[in-house]
Amino acid sequence: MTRTIYTAKTIRTMWAANPTAEAVLVDDDLIVAVGSVASLQQWGDATVDDRFADKVIIPGFVEAHTHGMAGGIWSSPYVGFYPRSAPDGTRWEGCEDLDATLDRLREAEAQLDDPSQPLLAWGLDPIYLQGERLNRHHLDTVSEQRPIFVFHASGHLATVNTAMLEAHDIGADHPAEGIPKGPDGFPNGELQEPAAMALARSGFLGILRTLSEPQALWDFARIARNVGVTTATDLGTSPSKDWDRWATETTDDEYPLRVMMAAQGNFGASDELATQVLERMEQQSDRLRFGVVKLMLDGSIQGYTARLRSPGYLPQAGVENGLWLLPPDSVADQLAAFHDAGLTVHCHTNGDEALDIFLDAVETVLRKTPRWDHRHTSQHCQLAHRDQLRRMASLGVAANMFTNHLWYWGDQHRTMTVGEDRAAAMNACRSALDEGVLLSFHSDAPITPMGPLHTMWCAVNRLTPSGVVLGPNERITPAEALEAATLGAARQLKLDNEIGSIEPGKKVDFAILDDDPLAVAPEAIRDIGVWGTVLSGRIHKGS
Fold it and tell me: Residue 166 maps to which CATH number?
């Protein structure tokens, strides 16, 4: 095959030896060399392709924490606070108060013909809405007969109506955790965390079925392509439900994304799951990879279900602490099964108390089974203190921080969840880098929209919607942010020998941008246009 030289206005390689270039030489799906056009001609005949001459080429963004449902969840109406765009380009305006939320639900309910079909919606976050928190009585005004299930933006809670509670026998005496009661002693309609949400089976399973159609997986890839992502992790998948579907769709040469499957490790036998992951690693393809297991320890900070060190949540929250999604004394044993198998564990730890438990478990398993370069990772890692970051560095634990929280919930964290001082220390990227922690950050799509330029912007600027710079001393530079969004994330996935930088021998995975994120004003980073991507040498224009 004829070699091709792609020229660009600027190429940011993320390769320390040659950080910038004007051209890159590729041979099929591998990079041969970078440099000037003249220097690349020493490799012999090549076709010069100037289609990106007025663009900026960077390594394809690597999103190390998303969920495949980001492509399929749009089959249900969106009732979130901020405007969002669906994969087909449809713009959904935000529901900025309780009345707007209920009106949208009524519109959706009126379009359902089958009276037994549950009404499903997603994106709600009561923390944004003034007045009384949404409860079953509000949803009963939408319908008293049709079961209703409204999935929260965090993915950790849902609110249902009385018909849904009654359909699944969720009553005043139900023993499960995560079912708060109203003044009448009956569940108020909020279901906190997966175990409680799963009790409302028809609603919870309906949301999960959004991944059942091939269209959902293709829409997920199109969302990624449109924001410059060439590798994404589906963090928390089921061997029995998800892996074969992904394997089928990603075999198509036109599929514009590499996907890392992270197995959900909270449920079932850990030894059996470890064996399944190892077997799949032997069958993995260029576009579908395995080797990561996800554990979930706690919930969400804005949902008041994350586990926090003292002093906990602000008094006005009315909660003492969040919920454990795994018994703390079982975490080391769970981790050991995957660690001993040579797998990498990415552990959901929103709260600092949950992070302590994870780090204790890592230390325990390393004492028993020393293992270099394990790259176990704290996911979200939002309230990590400096002492915890030092401990992470010493244990070899990476941090994948949820920097989008600084924008989407920064003001609420200041005033409603943890207070000014701890909100200013959230997602402490500067401290993590200074302590030597391997850093990346993520969108957790569909929790927030996928878009690495936005997560970079958050880490660099730390602005909230009210204009507050939330913890200015924790800002990082655009160059550090770009590395975290490319090579840093690739390192966490143990794929940095193939992707994450533009250097000889690596995959031809590029994001094509309209401008240079290291040259524009820091506050303009998130506004840079994305032309599309190149994946293994195939060009995919965005839409």
Answer: 3.10.310.70
Whether a cis peptide bond, with omega within 30° of 0, leads into 446 is: yes
Residue 467 covered by a domain? yes
Please write the tens of the pLDDT for every residue from 334-346: 999 999 999 999 9
How many Å apart are CA 320 and CA 308, to the nearest integer? 9
**Are 71 and 218 a contacting pair, CB within 8 Å?**
yes
Once rounded to an integer, what is the mean pLDDT over residues 317-333? 95
Q: How far apart are CA 432 and CA 474, in angstroms?
A: 9
pLDDT value of residue 207 = 87
Length of the chain equals 543
Same domain? 181 vs 228: no
* Domain assignment present for 238: yes
User: Please, are residues 381 and 354 in contact by the beta-carbon 8 Å criterion?
Assistant: no
* Cα dist from 236 to 68, 379, 482, 493, whole Å: 9, 12, 25, 14
pLDDT at 1: 56
**HEC readout, 141-155:** CCCCCCCEEEEECCC
Q: Would you say residue 194 lies in a domain? A: yes
Residue where a domain stops, chosen among 163, 182, 209: 209
Angle between helices 352-368 and 386-395 (to 10 degrees): 20
| Neighbouring residues of 456: CB distance < 8 A, sequence distance ≥ 6 | 441, 478, 481, 482, 484, 485, 517, 525, 526
Range list of β-strands (E), 306-449: 344-349, 377-380, 398-401, 439-441
Confirm if 417 and 304 have CB atoms less than 8 A apart: yes
Given phi > 0 = left and psi -120 to 50 = alpha, else beta, which region is 196? Answer: alpha
Give percent of the chain above pLDDT 70: 99
| Cβ atoms of residues 335 and 345 within 8 Å | yes
In this structure, is residue 68 part of a structural domain? no
* Residue 435 pLDDT greater than 90, yes or no: yes
Check if the beta carbon of residue 113 is closer than 8 Å to that of residue 149: no
Question: CB of 234 within 8 A of CB of 217?
Answer: no
Residue-wise pLDDT for 531-540, tens only, equals 999 999 999 9
Quote the pTM value. 0.95
The Cα 219–Cα 357 span in angstroms is 37
The answer to whether 349 touches 385, Cβ cutoff 8 Å, is: no
Give the 3-state secondary structure of residue 26: strand
Instruction: Please classify residue 261 by burial: count the beta carbons closer than 10 Å to its beta carbon, then call 0-12 exposed, 13-18 middle and 19+ buried.
Output: buried
344 and 473, same structural domain? yes
Same domain, yes or no: 503 and 369: yes
Q: What is the β-pairing status of strands 56-59 and 61-66?
A: unpaired
Tell me: pLDDT of 116 over 90: no
Helix, strand, coil percentages (3-state) for the chain, rounded to 5, are 35, 20, 45
- Cβ atoms within 10 Å of 186's Cβ, excluding its own: 16
Identify whether residues 333 and 441 lie together within a single domain: yes
The three-state secondary structure class of 181 is strand
Count Cβ atoms below 10 Å from residue 316 Cβ, excluding itself.
8
